[in-house]
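User: Sequence recovery, please. Input:
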């Protein structure tokens, strides 16, 4: 079978698993905030508290995230579709109109998210064309909002 058709079919089939949507944030080599939309987030361990996400090695921000000593996973609420779009774009000024605070570990906590996890790097592992980043959660919180979700290639 045609390889790119096979990959498209694989992606479509993966999208039948409904997920939440997150923005993972960190800082670049000169301390500027960086962030990208991510739905590969998953829980890993309760004790120690570990989570994971995976990043495509071709992402422009790949080296910053791979070498970062941590990151925040911001879980988006239903009314944050605009943030999902901004952070999955190639914009060079994603944080321009975003309200955020610095987490205890120094990474951007985006205002009004459904939940967040402030993480320090635990380890990273090869995963084909992606790298699997595992973080130890050092702080977290949530509020009672509805989630933004991804299913069947649709965000709602
Ligand atoms: C719903 C959704 C989920 C995504 N999940 C991931 C993901 O888990 N890993 C990844 O590398 N890219 C993912 N992306 C793509 C990135 O958000 C997008 O390529 C982004 O521009 C990368 O940021 P950068 O250009 O600043 O590196 C996702 C995009 C969307 C819309």
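Assistant: Recovered sequence (156 residues):
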């Amino acid at each position: 079978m045609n390889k790119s058709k096979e990959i498209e079919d694989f992606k479509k089939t993966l999208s039948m698993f409904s997920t939440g949507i997150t923005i993972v944030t960190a800082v670049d080599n000169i301390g500027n905030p960086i962030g990208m939309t991510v739905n590969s987030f998953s829980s890993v361990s309760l004790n120690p508290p570990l989570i994971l996400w995976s990043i495509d090695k071709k992402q422009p921000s790949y080296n910053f995230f791979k070498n970062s000593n941590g990151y925040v996973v911001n879980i988006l609420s239903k009314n944050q579709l605009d943030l999902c779009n901004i952070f999955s774009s190639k914009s060079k000024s994603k944080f321009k109109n975003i309200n955020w605070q610095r987490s205890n570990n120094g990474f951007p906590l985006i205002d009004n998210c459904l939940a967040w996890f402030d993480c320090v790097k635990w380890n990273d592992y090869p995963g084909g064309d992606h790298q699997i980043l595992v973080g130890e959660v050092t702080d977290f919180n949530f509020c009672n909002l509805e989630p933004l979700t991804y299913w069947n290639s649709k965000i709602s």
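Residues 64 and 92 are 15 Å apart (CA to CA).
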